[in-house]
Amino acid sequence: MLLPALLSMVMAGPLQGQALLDELSQKAVKFFWEQSNPVTGLTKDRAANFKKKDDYIVASVAACGYALSAYAIGSHRHWLPREAALERSRLTVDWLNKHGLKEHGWFFHFVDWRNGERHWNSESSTIDTGLLLAGEIIAEQEFKDPELTKMVNETFKNVDWGFMLTDGGAKPASTTICMGWDPEHGFIKARWDGQYESTFFNLIALGASKVVPDTLWPSIRRTPLVTYRGNEFIIGGCIFMHQMSQVFIDFKDQRDSLGYDYWVEGKNDCHAQRAYAIDNPMKFKGYGADFWGLNAGDAPSGYVGNGMPEGTGSDDGTISPTGAIASIIYDRANAVGVANHLARDYPESLGIYGFANGINPSKKWQSPDVIGIDLGMELLAIESARDELPQKLSLASPIYREGLRRAGFHHTDEGPSDKRPLKVG
Prior knowledge:
The protein is α+β, with helices and mostly antiparallel strands.
């Protein structure tokens, strides 16, 4: 016979709305707390979501950045003891400064969470180091702890912006930043020269270093624009590219020196993703108004880069719960609609740390894992939608403020944001 409390829970059904969002945020903080090594502070790239133990040992420096943000949020929301969260933040930044594998201050992407040794022949990565820096900014602004501030300042001081800007001096006229370097091949050919997920990183670069030229911002390609069902956006593909920066910076009611409104851009991509799922051109099971979000993440064939429209990514029938829910910064109702639908109709997808990283009804498959950077984006998006906490902490930093100034951002008064054009002028 069911106990009264358990019977009440069964009758009430799954959590919905804000209560579900609260649970997702707390589960994400739980991931970063439990899946970060208490000796090194390094955070696992992924973890099992439906069993208590796994044998994963690979950490990512990007996940470490989101962990620092999670400790700040967890402390602020009273989900973590403040002194414990601060101490873990100090440990993480200090260990990385003293022992983290890096080249000219740029940290390697994947390392062993036990000792920091390089894994998977990974590169010294600019974007992943950028996510670490973004997390350090949030932690420093939340805790206002002199010891932590000193450590964060050391991290920034050690980053050699000129090294990745000019490929070690080989490209002295370069106005964009290289994606990374590895000891086997040298500098990666690809650069952060397009409107990718790197907007926050380019603003940190402009704000942190005078070595980075003003011409970096206009050098980024933003055309040709993409349109789907009347929604115009800058780049197609994975949904995370339109979310990663805006969980740190609130671009709403702002335009840059070129006339772009990046909140409108992200909102349009969010609506295009939903419209694509409703159209469901590949006729996959499950797709619809409350089941959408093509993203980089786990799929039946492995880790893939799903995206839309055709020609800008693949579609194998797998949606990304974290990708759709992180769109709450643009469209609360439709993002919450996805969360509610999953909790109600796919209850088996909600695990220890949140929803499965990928769900594919056509193949009756879901990922057994969660991935740190995806949980990090979802957490920051939910908490930004709540009261803008991560965005306010970021904007309190003079680094972001200087970056925004150099990129020519200015507030506008053009009426309802959801009616504005993507670009003016």
